[in-house]
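Session log. Operator J.P. requested a structure for one protein chain; no other inputs attached. Running the standard single-chain path with token output.
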Amino acid sequence: MTHLVYEGTEFPIAAELVLGRQRDCGVVIADGKASRHHARVFTKPDATVWVEDLDSANGTRVNGEEIFSPRRLVDGDRIVIGKASVVLHGQTPATTPAAGQAALPDDGKELVGTELAGYRLEAVLGAGAMGVVYSATQVAMKRAVAVKVFTAALVAREDGFAARLLAAARRSGSVQHPGIAQIHDCGEQDGRLWYSMELVSGDTLEDLIARDGRVDPGLALLVVDQAATALQAAHAKGVFHFGVTAANLMLASDGHVKLLDLGLVSVLDSARHRTRDAQTEIVGNPWYTSPERTAGKDGDARSDVYSLGCVLYHLIAGEPPFDDASPRAILEAHRDRPIPSLLERLRELALPTKLDELVHGMLSKNPAWRHASMDEMLVDLRVVRELVAAMPPRTPEKAKESVPPAPRPR
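Structure written below.
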């Protein structure tokens, strides 16, 4: 019988199985990137098996390719949600792709060992629907870098995408700060659009939350302080991020924070979501998107303040300030729901009231009521850092009694 296998357990497919983190799902996915109802696997009258993304926040991949419409599955196909992997077994292999379905893309390995625009591509770091990221060496400089190469299909489909991306990469490359992953170069060669950037090793804050649940408030404030200082330098050059998330803030192996994808997120996300649904463009990760950006406005430094405030909340609480069943509902929550209190959510920690004031100043719905700049926000943040540092340490026994297990991101 056709079935899915997840973490060693078989799940027979009768008519439909919903995959997600909600307990009522047929396959409950234990991954922080999974939406409540993330994707569904279903059969058609001809007994073929298909998978469809349910407007999830982070997308669904099949064999490394993000899907934007129902995709036929064959035996051995791998559905990936975050880092969770679900494999289909028992389905007759198809000899040709289903109607309207492109053949699966390669994983980028055919370029490993070749040279592109003066960069020797050495290994695949990651692959997705938009392109492949390689570890590489800039031959002339003998410098280790990361190189992202975009798919030809994306460049051909998205009119003006190449020009927008190259312009954004050049603007971002003009900003130099130790807290920003430096963009070195960009261009097109042999029909391939690419850019190179500083190679950073470490874990993203998203990885940190997924592993630990929630982060010590003192560490969270330090991390956000470093990220804000990097954004402060970018804003001084007139460059805004407009896509600050826990996934593009990396805690590097030297213990410092690195901001990734400065100035590129708007270009990349607009292409990604127009591909998904040309009628419903959602730019950015809904967990961190400011109300004005959701409304399609240009935004400014205060939009980055808002997104960074969401990251701060997520780090300390172990879950984002607003969550719901779909990206659209999450964006509406940013616009309409009251800002949740960290102090109320984490009463057992006895955090200073100034922390709630800081979060409310960063997450005000109206940009006019928000911190006007990173400079202004950092003044308040550093006051809170001092207050948190002065808190009496709790004994392990008291911590064990009063602190429940850290919640996973919802």
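Operator note: The two ends are 33 Å apart (CA to CA).
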